[in-house]
Write a structure and sequence with these properties.
Elements: H1 3-29, H2 36-43, H3 47-53, H4 57-81, H5 89-99, H6 103-118, H7 124-140, H8 144-163, H9 170-183
Length: 186
């Protein structure tokens, strides 16, 4: 890679590193304890360097949510692309992705949930993605209600994980997911 290309990519790499560090800190200590100083220190950049990319804690949180939403959507798109049955494929992919979120990602979502309550606009990107998912259900399913039920139930399972509401063993989780996937085939 040439020096010019390396310099152009540096801000992108720094920004990604700041988001990773912020995610780690949120998962460890929660949103309330997240400070720009702590993110900058752990990432090995000056606070001014962090502020260049994210001018406020709110901007950093919004970027974190956006990154997590995009990560989830890419994973669901990959699962959908591998599904040979076009009927309900997007809803099946959503269910499979939601029930297999890595534990670290679930912890980040859990920690960020407090931020969503104080600033619902942080979920605007997620709402947009959900609209796209629902549009896919309307085009893929004769009756998209079963796909919506599967999505809502997968969200409930995911929310239960985020809040630590149930102690669901792996076998039960698999059986629940299988039932939700079966709904997408009707």
């Amino acid at each position: 890679m040439t020096e010019t290309r390396t310099r152009r990519r540096q801000p992108e790499v720094t920004q990604q590193r700041l988001l990773e560090v912020a995610g780690e800190l949120v998962g460890e200590t929660g949103v309330a304890a997240l400070t720009l100083e702590a993110v900058a220190k752990r990432a090995g950049v000056s606070k001014g360097g962090l502020l260049h990319h994210f001018p406020s804690k709110q901007a950093l949180l919004a970027a974190m949510v956006g990154t997590m939403v995009e990560r989830f959507a890419r994973a669901a798109d990959t699962v959908a692309a591998a599904d040979a049955d076009p009927r309900g494929r997007s809803a099946r992919a959503y269910v499979r992705t939601a029930v297999s979120e890595p534990e670290a990602e679930v912890r980040r979502w859990a920690a960020l949930s407090a931020a969503f309550m104080s600033d619902p606009s942080l979920l605007d990107g997620w709402r947009g993605r959900l609209k796209g998912f629902r549009d896919a259900d309307r085009s893929e399913c004769a009756d998209p209600v079963d796909a919506l039920v599967a999505r809502l139930a997968a969200d409930g399972l995911w929310f239960a994980d985020v809040c630590g509401l149930y102690d669901i063993d792996a076998e039960t989780r698999r059986r629940v997911a299988d039932r939700l996937v079966a709904l997408t085939r009707s």
